[in-house]
């Protein structure tokens, strides 16, 4: 397994053997033993240790930011924000351990009926490469807070980040409670074979297999998968401000976020907005992600760049117009220009399937109803946005867009760790993650009836 830097593919960040299924099984057994003691430790102890974990990660912020930039090509400002979010997530879940975990109910006489929650055991976490610090932490922090052990299988392209995170957390966590098991699909399958609960984030194709495998073993599973996120722009929106936000949501981090805007639907004439969006996309600074001012770095690998360029070419062949971009950049690494394509047929892959890169379609709609219909016409439903000053239109959209998360006058990108996160349709399966939703997934309810003799 090799992880190389997308901006400088000759720079091998890490090269190592995959974790074998036997090694995964051994790790799961040891994690299971460590989990018993961890689950018995009180909330104050778990809060103390998770708070200490936050401080250890915070102290390593600069180093983790630099590693994220190097390994996955994330622009420095976004990488730093991601590490800082990871620290906040640890602090947040360190406090959630004090929340109530059940309720007491009416019972005859002096008897007592109450509900409580118990950890599930060893949590198998399978993560993608695009948020190499935040996603492992937004799964591991609640898993640990609520008394589970962790088996984390990071994406190959983000393995160095995950291993460094493990080293840092090992400074404060009880021994053998958290394991990182690097490897590819086979290692991931081995995790599915032995975890007591499975939390997956990644592509829809892999997510489906993960859900089936976990369900086949009768194990609780959540899967957060791809998006094909639309934003609707109404004529009353502030053209410049809106164009700048949309450009950033299309091409920031080279469009490699599950929440990136992939389809822009403009209601009415839209000529001014179209020009402003093209200008805003061309203004984004593209280059070495280590530079503080860069917004658009490379895509993750050569195959990803090829897919962006091929899609632009095939859309053009199908009659679409490339308004900006559509070409690679003469630069070391896997750079491609932010690309906006207009007039792409509804049946074309660019309109239907998530393409993980800085490319987006632009289309028109006569009114809000038609725009919402267009936005809802895909199989995915992660996030959708609307830009308008009309409160009624915003509320209509919030009520009728098929998406798990709705953004009004805000980019489709950007999530809050204290709010439930997830989509509908093919974008998500199972319970929500993050925020107060996490406890429902990482614990199981128990009902106790206590009578007196
Ligand atoms: P991916 O699906 O290729 O891989 C995700 C993880 O699954 C990796 O760790 C991979 O090694 C593992 N895996 C692959 N095959 C497996 C198998 N058969 N069994 C078990 N594990 C297996 O995704 P990726 O390329 O790493 O990430 C990009 C994708 O992630 C995009 O589709 C993006 O939309 C999605 N994503 C979704 C969210 C969200 O919250 N909805 C967030 C970030 C990324």
- Alpha-beta content class: alpha/beta
Give the tally of β-strands. Answer: 20
Query: How much of the sequence is in beta strands?
Result: 15-25%
Low-confidence stretches: none
The bound ligands are: nicotinamide-adenine-dinucleotide
Assign a percent range to the helix content: 40-55%
Note the total helix count: 15
> Based on CA inertia axes, which overall geometry fits?
globular
Descriptive report:
The chain contains 15 helices and 20 strands. Helix content is 41%, strand content 21%. The protein is an alpha/beta fold and 453 residues long. The model has no long low-confidence stretch (mean pLDDT 97). The protein has a seven-stranded mixed β-sheet with strand order 12-13-14-11-10-16-17, sandwiched between helices. A six-stranded mixed β-sheet has the order 7-6-5-8-9-19, sandwiched between helices. The structure holds nicotinamide-adenine-dinucleotide. Nicotinamide-adenine-dinucleotide binds next to helix 7 and helix 8.
Which terms would index this structure?
453 residues, alpha/beta, seven-stranded mixed beta sheet, 15 helices, 20 strands, binds nicotinamide-adenine-dinucleotide
Strands, helices and their partners?
Layout: E1 2-5, E2 8-15, H1 21-40, H2 43-59, H3 61-72, H4 76-96, E3 104-105, E4 112-119, E5 122-126, H5 134-145, E6 149-153, H6 159-170, E7 178-180, H7 185-194, E8 197-201, H8 204-216, E9 220-224, E10 229-233, H9 239-251, E11 261-267, H10 271-283, H11 302-317, E12 321-324, E13 339-342, H12 349-352, E14 359-365, H13 368-375, E15 380-381, E16 383-387, H14 391-400, E17 405-408, E18 424-425, E19 428-429, H15 438-442, E20 443-450
Parallel strand pairs: 5-6, 5-8, 6-7, 8-9, 10-11, 10-16, 11-14, 13-14, 16-17
Antiparallel strand pairs: 1-2, 3-4, 4-20, 9-19, 12-13, 15-18
This protein binds nicotinamide-adenine-dinucleotide.
């Amino acid at each position: 397994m090799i992880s190389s830097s997308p901006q400088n593919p000759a720079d091998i960040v890490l090269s190592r053997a995959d974790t074998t299924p036997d090694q995964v099984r051994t790790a799961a057994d040891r994690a299971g033993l460590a989990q018993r003691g961890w689950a018995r430790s009180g909330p104050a102890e778990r809060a103390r240790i998770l708070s200490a974990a936050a401080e250890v990660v915070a102290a390593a912020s600069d180093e983790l930011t630099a590693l994220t930039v190097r390994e996955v090509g994330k622009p420095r400002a976004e990488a730093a924000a991601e590490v800082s979010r990871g620290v906040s997530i640890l602090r947040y879940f360190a406090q959630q351990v004090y929340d109530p975990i059940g309720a007491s109910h009416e019972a005859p006489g002096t008897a007592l009926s109450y509900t409580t929650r118990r950890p599930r055991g060893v949590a198998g976490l399978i993560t993608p490469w695009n948020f190499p610090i935040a996603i492992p932490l937004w799964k591991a922090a609640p898993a640990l807070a609520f008394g589970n052990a962790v088996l984390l299988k990071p994406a190959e392209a983000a393995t160095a980040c995950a291993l460094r995170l493990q080293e840092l957390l090992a400074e404060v966590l009880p021994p053998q409670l958290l394991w990182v098991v690097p490897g590819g699909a086979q290692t991931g399958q081995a995790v599915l074979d032995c975890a007591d609960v499975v939390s997956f984030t990644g592509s829809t194709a892999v997510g489906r297999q993960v859900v089936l495998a976990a369900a086949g073993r009768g194990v609780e599973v959540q899967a957060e998968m791809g998006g094909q996120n639309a934003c609707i722009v109404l004529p009353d929106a502030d053209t410049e401000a809106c164009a700048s936000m949309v450009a950033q949501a299309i091409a920031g981090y080279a469009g490699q976020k599950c929440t990136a805007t992939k389809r822009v639907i403009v209601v009415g004439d839209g000529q001014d907005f179209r020009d402003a969006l093209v200008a805003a996309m061309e203004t984004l600074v593209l280059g070495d992600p280590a530079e503080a001012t860069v917004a658009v770095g490379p895509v993750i690998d050569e195959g990803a760049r090829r897919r962006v360029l091929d899609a632009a070419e095939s859309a053009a062949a199908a009659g679409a117009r490339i308004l900006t971009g559509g070409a690679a950049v003469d630069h070391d690494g896997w750079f491609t220009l932010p690309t906006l394509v207009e007039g792409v047929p509804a049946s074309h892959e660019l309109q239907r399937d998530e393409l993980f890169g800085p490319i987006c379609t632009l289309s028109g709609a006569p009114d809000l109803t038609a725009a919402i219909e267009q936005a809802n016409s895909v199989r995915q439903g992660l996030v959708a946005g609307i830009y308008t000053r009309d409160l009624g239109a915003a509320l209509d959209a919030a009520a009728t867009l098929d998406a798990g998360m709705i953004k009004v006058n805000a980019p489709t990108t950007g999530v809050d760790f204290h709010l439930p996160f997830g989509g509908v349709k093919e974008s998500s399966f199972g319970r929500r993650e993050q925020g107060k939703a996490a406890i429902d997934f990482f614990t199981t309810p128990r009902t106790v009836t206590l009578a007196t003799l």
